[in-house]
Structures
1.
Amino acid sequence: VQEQLAQDTRVCAYDRAGYGQSEPGPMPRDIQRAAEELHLLLLNSGEEGPYLLVGHSLGGLNAQVFAASYPEQVVGVVLLDPPPQGWMMGEGFPELRELFRQQTAAMEAAADAARASSDPEEKAQAAFLETVASEHEELFVQSAQQVGAISSFGQLPLTVIGATEPDPRFGESSAAFRQFWISESRELAVKSERGRFILAEGSSHHIHLDAPQLVIEAIREILLESRI
């Protein structure tokens, strides 16, 4: 996706704090903090806007809050299967929220074990595990409220791309949850007067891997509109 888009415009990717080679950031890891850190990163890097934001999954929440916080710097947003807002706010599927809480507790325990390890490679994983655990925990607390507070994106070009394939990790709830997720994504696109929803047929949650050309075309369409 990045290689093809680089033929049209400048493309930048980054690792959030605690990921990849980025240093860990302060806790808790909520969406507003991530958006503010991205804003600071762009300022310090000298990458001048305006920006077209592309976010997958949790990154799609970051992109929404960034666009709402710094609207004058954003010319468009493309979201790839962002988590359903209603579920984050407590609507339906409590068993899946409990599953996430269990995963969060497991990651916190793994972070503690890694921090106490004498193996340098294991020790290096502690910050990453702690970061992901905090992101998951905040998903149903501060992050949900921060994303839920966005009532409208006005006339900002917004494209939301949803997946069709259920995630087997969600067990018996997977098919129903996927349909709920699609419905939530459709509603999200309506938050912009220039919003649209695209269903990536046959795609899993990893739309950029399963349907890269669809993603590229959606981004290029907004690029042509904004001419950046």
2.
Amino acid sequence: NRAASLVRQLLAFSRRQTLRPQVLDLGDVLNDLSMLLRRLIGAKVKLDVVHARDLWPVKADLSQFEQVVINFAVNARDAMPDGGALTVRTANIAALDAAQLKHKGMPAADYVLVEVSDTGTGIPLDIQDKIFEPFFSTKDIGKGTGLGLSTVYGIVKQTGGFVYVDSEPGRGTAFRVYLPRHVPGAEAEDNTAAPAPAKSVA
């Protein structure tokens, strides 16, 4: 089981894993996941799930999205050994608002935001640009593979989304995942082949 899990992580961060995307309401997904999250983070950490109203649908692999959130939650728990608060928040981000965020590499479009924030120890600024690299870990030897966040990065990228971190030592960490809004019918239009040009008769 450990070997199979390791292979899945390797495939995910190399973006070669076969995803089974489906249209999801992330509010429902997170509600279903909240009981597991509470067990994972333990009694000393308070979990708060805050949903936006009329959340847009996204198209993603359910189990892989759950893995992303679980990974964030486990990292948050480890960063709060004496307890704290974990907040999972969702929101619709319209294209105009996305443009104003000025996130590097993220084009202006409609997204659904999933933010996982904690009140833990935070991540030093000098390593924040390394945390999504494979085999990089801030945990003690034997306590982390260094594949968790690189797996997250691979899953999010393969889904067409973006992930960013905002952290300050002593003040906690927030991971923000932006997934493209799913518009029913848009894919069908994109996949419609343009008619071949008529051949001229000599």
3.
Amino acid sequence: MSVNWDWVGKEFNVKVLFSVAGVASQILIQSRKEESFLLVDAGDGIVRDLLELPGRIFEKINTIAITHGHFDHVGGIFSLLSIFRLVNRSETLTIISPPDNSNLKNMINVFTEYNTAHQTFDINYVETTDKSFKFKPFTITSFLVQHRSSLSPPGKKMSAVGYKISKKDETILYTGDTGYFDQLKILVKGVDLALIEATFIEKKEDYHLTLFEAKKLSELAKDYILVHVPTHIHFQNLKKGKD
């Protein structure tokens, strides 16, 4: 049995495991030739979503890239780390995150303290804002985005990033959670696949994209998938690629 990938490129396969605003977001990217896997965001239910895939793929994830600290993007980290320990993972796990991600750090710290005597793998925690990293075979470039917490004072942004994932001449871009800003057009233009958040039907705030804004951005990419869709719209109805 093989994975029913949502997008297949020359270098990458992409599976949107789940992505609904306020519930959970998790996206799996495979480097096809090496069979190496990158997980981007890890909301609630991530272990269930990964275990539904054939071939124990979850054991082949070497890097996790987190966009920001909201629960729907990090809520499954503790259970994911726990399943890694349960299967006696020995390879170092790299976790990339923007700075000041206290929710993520707290879950990692609790896991580490709880499993001090039984820890089977190391965690390489990397903070980023606008840097490029080479985690073979992926080149991962972060960029700052425009996002905030609903609990924050008006106008106060939070530490949040999007990611470009590249290999050879193929590039995937994931906006993460963000409002519209002009640089997004430059970032999205020409990428092979854009994973673009589309939280609102109508404009409600400046820290999430509307479906209209997401569709306009999608025209700049070679292909796209809309993610982080509203909870009242069925995910599969919005997931689409260009011919």
4.
Amino acid sequence: DHIQASLLVRQLRGEVPGQSGDALATTGIGGNISGVLVPRWDADDRIKFAVNAGSGIGSYIADMSSLGGQDAVYDQMQVSLRALPVSSGYFGYEHTWSPVFATAVTYGVVSVSNLDIQPGNAFRRTQRTSFNLTWNPVPFVDLVFEFLAGTRVNKNGQRASASQFQTGWTLKF
């Protein structure tokens, strides 16, 4: 078992396109609590979780970093950067069925408290669920088969869902 906590304080900087001068800056601050627990009912299983919250920490959250970070937004009226408030979390359960088969089920959510200056198509929320099967056919090799499904909602309420099946392998040496 282990649980860890972290705190992040960072400076966000950016230049306004087409304008010369000093870069704009604001502060980002956030925290994280994560851990892995061994359930009392099965010492081979694992419960994994993480919770993140703060402003200006989008680069540290997978869904948001894939969109370019989404750490801060330029406020044209105030000529300033405004850090975006964000929170995220996931919960996963890993079960070992035998020495060669294991599964994991995970649910995660990311949520942005959108600012009034953001456009309607700005990222607001995602939810994702995954299920995988890991097969260890020979020592040092894992084959993974995974199904993922998720939904994205924008600030204006527009939503879309997607799912995918993927496979992968790990060679341990």
